[in-house]
Design brief:
The complex is a heterodimer. By secondary structure, chain A is an alpha/beta fold. Chain A has twelve helices and 13 strands. In chain A, 33% of the residues lie in helices and 20% in strands. Classes of the chains: A alpha/beta, B alpha/beta.
């Protein structure tokens, strides 16, 4: 528990930096008379600790970006609550509190080509953010701070890069600018939504290393949203696997990948192309279509693709339960004492 | 995979090039005409393709891999232009053929599967109607024949033929990409050119599509040129692998060979940039810097500014492609066939 957190809510219990309880987001679909709703995120309870990189992995449509937007307060939850340093987000009323939350939890977007205004120099965006969120700084101090964070993310010489236009920077450099802008607000948590997926392979590792470095030197936590399990393993401390809007499995990254308990995690793992390992998936091809969750009935959402599905899976939604210390899975079949082998 | 392709869709007399290759690319260069002068996006690329062979082409964005593929398929549009070399497909040079001459070959002997099926498929026509267009253009007019063949190819890629009536937006990303591949199979071509067909898909769908492509290829015997930025994707599927850098071939050899003992420092760097899902967690570095501006390529080796093994000579003279056993590599370290470090 950091002193900052203690200052924030007065109590010093073992409260994580951020946690969600039963977080849900449903979108109404169809025409005005329709009562159908798409369950993008359902009953998600997760935790992000101090100085921790948590990877949120899953296929497109699994709800991982919706979670990021809920945490950034871009969406209002349909149900459930988000606690940041122990305080519920729904209690935020004033603009000052909102600004403070937005600076403590900042976001880095997927597309470095679309997320930076092309007509302004790099200094524009970052100085503006500083002016808005850290009004106590003088113009000179803002410039100093901008130089500091540009150097922290490896954009050197910082004074020169600050004067460049976006088109003068490569994709990797632009994404570093994204992290610099987030960092300038002194965040406790950075929500990084697929920050490297648009970058070339040879550039990606540099950004992943930067994330680990920011955790170690700046003390920030990062929610790393990705569909690439290998990169999650490389950089994250903990891994949360999402399937169809729910958490399928969560735990320490090495532990989850070495002993996956949920059949879906196993399927994901078997599909990762790894030139160093022999081909594991055989010709019996899983078509790989996660369901769109519209007005779901109880039951496991993975049951149609699961070779281990039992009767109970058709009727009862499996709750996320702890199988091993810190290692949870939402599966009726998974057991603590034996590995699950589905794929 | 139960369905067997109807024999009439196979070309009984598959004529081949002089040495039995289906495709011979010789010294192919492509230039983009720009205000500041030409940008050579593909420089002097040569390779042969045997019938039924699977060649992967990998590289970063801007390395010329898609331009090369478009040049082979004769799909380049201005300002891009082939400035040198030839593309012999079954012994016939495609460079300089008219659109009318190419139309006879397209779909029938050679088909192309594009990167984004959402953009490649017509959104206002059903899948079946688009199949029908392609078949009509090649003189198949019987409705019954069109329907049966369309259903057949759709089944081949694991989609229920009832989806012939579906429109692209009604299908998932994976199914759209599969129907593109089904369409490419209509006439059982000898060569299928694929430009990152799986890049918009999730890992599970991606892997299952790759397995499907490989199965079809083994069953029907067509050759594949597969372009991707993700070299691990083709690691288990391609026979040979070409690594491109800044418009040139950096390394070209048997896939297993390139993965197990890469020769070019760029290939080594690229392989080391992939975190492994198994095995020890080791710190990786990636490749520092970024690819050169092709409007002003370096005088010597194009990889020299980023190369960890750069020598004085690399900055002055451009290396040739040297042969080491069966692998070609553009690096002075391997001049004269040496494998030394």
């Amino acid at each position: 528990m950091s002193e900052a957190a203690a200052r924030y809510n007065g109590s010093a219990a073992a409260e994580p930096l951020l946690r969600t309880e039963g977080l849900s987001k449903h979108f109404k679909i169809g025409n005005a008379l329709s009562r159908r709703s798409l369950h993008a995120v359902d009953e998600v309870s997760l935790q992000i600790g101090e100085r921790e990189i948590v990877a949120l992995a899953g296929e497109s449509g699994s709800g991982k970006s919706t979670i990021a937007r809920l945490l950034a307060k871009l969406y209002t939850p349909t149900d459930g609550e988000i606690y940041f340093q122990g305080k519920p987000l729904s209690a935020i009323r004033s603009r000052a509190d909102m600004l403070r939350y937005r600076s403590e939890v900042s976001m880095v977007f997927q597309d470095p080509f679309a997320s930076i205004n092309p007509v302004f120099r790099m200094s524009h965006g970052i100085l503006r953010g500083l002016k808005l969120h850290r009004g106590e700084l003088s113009a000179q101090q803002r410039l100093q701070e901008a130089l500091r964070v540009f150097e922290a993310v490896g954009l050197t010489p910082a004074a020169e890069v600050l004067q460049r236009f976006p088109h003068e920077l490569s994709g990797g450099q632009r994404q570093r600018v994204g992290f610099a802008q987030a960092l300038a607000l002194r965040p406790k948590l950075i929500l990084a939504d697929e920050p490297v997926s648009m970058l070339d392979v040879s550039i990606r590792i540099g950004l992943l290393n930067l994330m680990a470095q920011l955790r170690d030197t700046e003390g920030v936590s990062i929610l790393y949203i990705t569909h690439d399990i290998a990169s999650a393993r490389y950089v994250a401390d903990r891994l949360i696997v999402m399937y169809a809007g729910q958490i399928a499995e969560a735990g320490p990254v090495e532990e989850v990948l070495a002993n996956p308990r949920h059949p879906y995690t196993q399927l994901l793992l078997s599909a990762v192309p790894d030139p160093r390992a022999p081909l594991t998936i055989s010709a019996e091809t899983d078509k790989g279509e996660p369901p769109r969750v519209i007005d779901p009935t109880p039951g496991c959402r993975f049951r149609w693709r699961c070779p281990l599905a039992i009767d109970e899976c058709q009727r009862v939604t499996p709750p996320l339960r702890q199988l091993l210390p810190g290692h949870d899975a939402a599966c009726h079949v998974a057991r603590a004492d034996a590995p699950t082998r589905a794929f | 995979m139960s369905s067997v392709p109807a024999e009439q869709y196979r070309d009984a007399s598959r004529s081949l090039g002089s040495a039995g290759q289906i495709l011979q690319v010789n010294g192919l260069s492509v230039e983009y005409a720009m205000d500041q002068g030409g940008v050579v996006a593909v420089k002097d690329v040569s390779f042969d393709l045997d019938p039924g062979e699977f060649v992967g082409i990998v590289g970063e964005s801007g390395c010329g891999k898609s331009t090369l593929l478009f040049a082979i398929a004769q799909l380049l549009a201005p300002p891009a232009e082939i400035t040198g070399g030839s593309v012999l497909f079954k012994g016939r040079n495609l460079v300089g053929l008219t659109a009318r001459q190419l139309n006879v070959i397209r779909w029938k002997d050679m088909s192309v599967v594009m990167q984004s099926a959402m953009n490649a498929l017509n959104p206002v026509k059903s899948i079946g109607a688009q199949f029908k267009d392609a078949m009509r253009a090649h003189g198949v007019s019987s409705a019954a024949e069109i329907a049966s063949r369309s259903g057949q190819v759709l089944r081949m890629v694991g989609i229920d033929p009832q989806h012939l009536r579906s429109y692209p937006h009604q299908l998932s990303g994976g199914m759209r990409q599969r129907s593109m591949i089904a369409m490419a199979m209509l006439f059982t071509p000898d060569l299928v050119i694929m430009d990152e067909p799986t890049s918009a898909l999730d890992v599970v769908a991606q892997r299952s599509l790759m397995v499907q492509i490989k199965e079809l290829q083994q069953e029907l015997g067509f050759a594949v040129i597969f372009v991707t930025h993700d070299m691990s994707l083709v690691s288990h599927f391609s026979d040979r692998l070409m690594v491109m850098y800044a418009g040139q071939v950096a390394e070209f050899g048997a896939t297993r060979q390139v993965f197990d003992s890469p020769l070019h420092p760029y290939s080594i760097g690229l392989l080391d940039a992939f975190p492994s899902i198994r095995g020890p967690r080791v710190p990786l570095t990636g490749i520092p810097g970024s690819p050169p501006d092709l409007a002003r390529p370096p005088a010597g080796c194009r990889f020299a500014p980023r190369c960890p093994k750069v020598m004085a000579r690399c900055e002055q003279e451009p290396p040739e492609l040297y042969r080491v056993d069966d692998t070609q590599v553009r690096c002075f370290l391997h001049e004269g066939g040496a494998v030394h470090e």
